[in-house]
Write a structure and sequence with these properties.
314 residues, alpha/beta, Rossmann fold, 12 helices, binds 2-acetamido-2-deoxy-beta-D-glucopyranose, AB_hydrolase_fold, hydrolase, signal, Alpha/beta-hydrolase
Length: 314
């Protein structure tokens, strides 16, 4: 079926089988996957090489009420890879959302981003404020915010906790993977640190990540975008803080109180910044006893807030 037929049926509420398409954004061929039916929700995957398979499986409940479009960023295969590292900056990846919107011929997007995908989605709302209808930032990375105080606090709380001992060993081993396999090993080792209840969820989540990517020819994680995006963002010393006030859409921020990577403190910086601009309406929801993947540890609350927000009931 053509994309156009798929999209018009899905938007009309007629469920369609999941399918992957591609389009051209400037010099790049980018892939995206469509699933579900109902109003369109674009989901931005992180740009560091984890792809969108974990989001397709984790966020599947949203496909009952929405047509979900998962955008696979530049640099993550099979989407094509920029030759220049600067083109791999998280902020620069936001231009691909604008290309997607133009290509879809829609005036604005409802947009959701998780983690680094949240940073890309937020950058898009800052650069193209009138093009974002609603924004959901789930455990977003806030670029340019020095969150080492949070890192130190969690380390203090967790260093004697046997549930995190393996993850802490992994961190001490350094975080400079050279191959996809090494990145996979690093992620597997760190996995407990992403959770408030690692004993319940960490291993299961990792196995699901592997399972979700099993049909992909590119593995569950890719080291090339991991390195390129990391280098590009680190070199981007100016950062992008200070642009929050440009956001004018309604924004929902969801963050776990036990997220050591993308913290409540970071989310508050974005909340204050958006409020400070005077146009955007922002709601911050802190999920208790919850780490970096709210749909795993606080699924009921997470989907309830997200769906109500998208349906404009609150
Ligand atoms: C980040 O903040 C910590 C204190 O919380 C400080 O020691 C450190 O130098 C800062 N790093 C940068 C790069 O500014």
């Amino acid at each position: 079926m053509s994309l156009l037929a798929h999209l018009s049926l899905a938007l009309a509420g007629i469920p369609q089988p999941t399918q992957t398409y591609s389009f051209d954004s400037a010099d790049y061929k980018l892939f995206f996957t469509l699933t579900g039916s109902g109003p369109l929700l674009v989901i931005q995957a992180p740009g560091w090489g984890i792809g969108d398979a974990y989001l397709q499986s984790g966020l599947a409940p949203l496909a009952k009420s929405h047509t979900l479009l998962f955008l696979l960023p530049r640099g993550t295969a099979p989407s094509s890879c920029p030759e220049s590292t600067t083109e791999m900056r998280s902020v620069t990846m936001a231009f691909d959302l604008e290309s997607l919107r133009v290509w879809l011929e829609v005036p604005s997007l409802a947009l959701l981003g998780h983690s680094n995908g949240g940073a890309v989605a937020l950058a898009y709302a800052e650069m193209y404020p009138e093009r974002v209808e609603r924004l959901v930032l789930v455990s977003p990375q806030i670029l340019g915010f020095n969150d080492s105080a949070t890192w130190i606090r969690f380390f203090g709380e967790r260093k004697e906790d046997p549930r995190y001992a393996g993850a802490i060993e992994t961190m001490k081993g350094g975080m400079d993977p050279q191959t996809d396999e090494e990145l996979k090993g690093l992620l597997k080792g760190l996995m407990p640190y992403y959770f408030a209840q690692p004993e319940r969820y960490a291993e299961k989540f990792y196995l699901q990540l592997e399972e979700a990517a099993k049909d992909s020819q590119h593995g569950s994680v890719q080291v090339s975008p991991f390195k390129a995006q990391g280098d590009a963002d680190r070199a981007d010393k100016e950062g992008v803080t200070g642009l929050f006030g440009r956001v004018i859409c309604k924004t929902l921020l969801l963050v776990g109180d036990q997220d050591a990577f993308c913290s409540v403190a970071a989310a508050k910086v974005a909340e204050e910044g958006i409020k400070g601009g005077g146009y955007g309406e922002v709601k911050l929801v802190v999920l208790e006893n919850c780490g970096h993947f709210p749909w795993v540890e606080k699924g009921d609350v997470f989907f309830d807030f997200t769906e109500k927000f998208l349906d404009a009931q609150e």
